[in-house]
Amino acid sequence: MSLVKYFNVDRLQCYAFETRKEMGIAAAKDAAAMLRVLLAEKETVNMMFAAAPSQSDALEALLSEPDIDWERVNAFHMDEYIGLSSQAPQGFGNFLRRAIFGQKPFKEVFYIDPSAADPQAEADRYEKVLLEHPMDICILGVGENGHVAFNDPPVADFADKRLVKTVALDEICRNQQVNDGCFTQLDEVPRTAMTVTIPGLMRAKALFCIVPAKTKAHAISELVKGEVSERCPASVLRRQPAAKLYLDADSASML
């Protein structure tokens, strides 16, 4: 495996690899190692996953990691559109069901319901679930606008009092969903969503952030070289004592 670059920025450990596949394998190995440690210490581990094509290499590699008792792992997803059918293939819960939740015998899988009649009530319900299940591991990505989950710059709040909230999606975020091939045109992309907030994500004991592709290079440059602020929500990772960032040559190209 060809590690091109390793460096720290504040508390964040950063790894850049030559290829996207190598990046995914490295992230999966590290996440699996942490999972094994936690399973040796406690009966049940709570693990949250981002849903995006950027995560596919790491999720595929994680599936092949040996010696993990998945029956003692609870799975969670971190954000979901509002107003999609519960069967819509673009739904993040459905993405994760295909990519990993349906591939392993998790103890329990907790979903946000995109078709809930009252999105605020659904956000309240999911927040209660998170309070009852303190997060151990979070596997996340970074958006083209620097978002984590659906915490876009206009709605990101490092001191948010909520763990889950409803948000309006900004246009860069919505265009990314088209660029990723999830929707064919912008008008199809929902304008609102439910998301775990930044404090909700950062409560995890360990964070593994996986970010490939040239389209993310500017966001990664802002994360690493800019200020820690809501202008680049992912920059909050620099404050976390147990966070790791995994890049490929494309996403690291502006560093």
Strand order of the largest sheet: 1-2-11-10-7-3-4-6
Instruction: Output the helix-strand order.
Output: EEHEHEEHEHEEHEHEHE
Give Rg in angstroms.
Answer: 17 Å
Count every helix, treating DSSP H or I runs of 4 or more residues as helices: 7
Q: Unreliable segments (pLDDT under 50, ≥5 consecutive)?
A: none
Distance between termini? 21 Å
Mean pLDDT: 95
Tell me about the largest β-sheet.
Answer: 8 strands, mixed
Residues in helix, %: 25-40%
Structural class: alpha/beta
Envelope shape: globular
Describe the protein.
By secondary structure, the chain is of the alpha/beta class. It has helices spanning 20-41, 56-63, 92-101, 119-132, 171-179, 198-202, 217-225, and strands at residues 3-9, 12-17, 45-49, 73-77, 79-81, 108-110, 137-140, 164-168, 192-196, 206-211, 243-247. Helix 1 (20-41) crosses helix 2. 30% of the residues lie in helices and 21% in strands. It has an eight-stranded mixed beta sheet, with helices on both faces. Strands 5-9-8 form a three-stranded antiparallel beta sheet. A hairpin with a 2-residue loop joins strand 1 (3-9) and strand 2 (12-17). It has seven helices and eleven strands.
